Amino acid sequence: MSSNRKGKSAARREPSWAVSLVPFAVLTLSLVVVIKIFGADALSGGSQVCLLLASAVTAAISMALYGNSWENLENCILDNIRSVGSAILILLLIGAIAGTWMVSGVVPSMICYGMKIIFPPVFLAAACAISALVSVMTGSSWTTIATIGVALIGIGTAQGFDPGWTAGAIISGAYFGDKVSPLSDTTVLASSSTGTPLFTHIRYMMITTIPSLCIALVIFLTASLMHHGADSARTAEFSGALESSFRITPWLMAVPVLTGILIVKKVPAILTLFCAAVMAAAAALVFQPQAIWAVANPGESIASFQGLSFWDACKGTAVTFYGSTGIMTGNEAIDSLISTRGMTGMLNTIFLIICSVTFGGVLAGSGMLRSLTEIFARLAHRAVTLVGSTVGTGLLCNMVTGDQYISIILTSSLYKRLFEQKGYEKRLLSRSVEDSATVTSVLIPWNSCGMTQATVLKVPTLDYLPYCFFNIISPLMSVCIAAVGYKIFRTHPERPSATDSGSPVQEGPRP
């Protein structure tokens, strides 16, 4: 009888915070090895294997030392996977939009119109603004930097700007769009990981994001006005190359305008993204038949286009949604710009999400997540310390794990229960995670984002880091807004298990 009671008591024990750190140590060490071996390609599968390995270690410790059952751990994993089901569908639609908006000429038109404002006295500010605009339209900082960013680096060099300054302006703008665009996978991931509706998350982020971007733009504009350089002939050359491959017309702006209207009308994200992709596909058939033909006939130059048959139209449109849109235009920069992978391009991210939520589910089911959260709970007694801890954890996860996706999910998992316990809204957590995990990833040399952008722009991470003003200001702005208590509300009083004396936040329902 006594032995039985002891067994039950052991089964009810939870891991200490020291034991709870073991899976993170395993994850960190394995990620270091994987990133060393695969570099930027670690997201193609290596990082996912690391997450599954850490999940296995967590499950083994929980079952062997603390009497947990596999059934309980499996249920927690399945619950987590169910929670990101809609996010996976959204990611697939984002992939479809990446292809349709590019092939339809929507993004090329935005680039052409934006390029017309570039000249030395405003170059850095314009580079930041254009990168932000393109990133909002595409939802991808990586695509923006690898296409228009590369062109802007060349333009900046021709005008005599330091590559670090130019790269900082490009990255600042690109990560602004990556942070607020409904097409961004990190935005979708942050909102879904915390259980916040996508557009609620985006609107709430504007409180910290817009001031951060405005400050960055002022700095870039001041630096541009103090610089004297050459003309912007390379800008005209790039615009001319786009115009020779696509029909650039203001009518294409109807697609993003109508998408914006759907967003304002609060149409569900899945329906909005589906409509945006369909509208762009229709625009492609009307305005860019040569591009649709080239997608349907890979390997053929767009200059060979003589007409679009019914079957080529069907095939090209379908491939634009799900597959590679590599089009041969005869211009290497344009070929790189319009090359997307559609829905298939999102499969690695979906693979990563499933493995990450598996790790999060095992952590929660084992009680390790609760043990770690209790440590943070002792430190976070006010809104500003809670947000500050979240922001600091996001940065730390980027440094430790080397990947922003993993950092977003881990930070969300660590703080989700604590925010609920303290009575703060989910949107405050999702914003704090984005203000840290998303934007700081590119500032770390060994992070997948830092490595990738340094390679693409040919500017070392530590060279552009001091000039990524948006990425540096965003985490600080998040903490400052929390200190002021602006638009920070509670959904319910704090639960008795924790204290929150002296909180400066406003009490009451959300406006």
UniProtKB/TrEMBL annotation:
One of its GO terms (molecular function) is antiporter activity. InterPro entries: Na/H_Antiport_NhaC-like_C, NhaC_Na-H+_Antiporter. It is a multi-pass membrane protein. The chain crosses the membrane at residues 21-39, 45-66, 87-111, 117-136, 202-225, 246-264, 270-287, 346-369, 464-486. GO terms for cellular component: plasma membrane. Residues 173-485 form the Na+/H+ antiporter NhaC-like C-terminal domain. Belongs to the NhaC Na(+)/H(+) (TC 2.A.35) antiporter family. This is Sodium:proton antiporter. The lineage of its organism: Bacteria, Pseudomonadati, Bacteroidota, Bacteroidia, Bacteroidales.
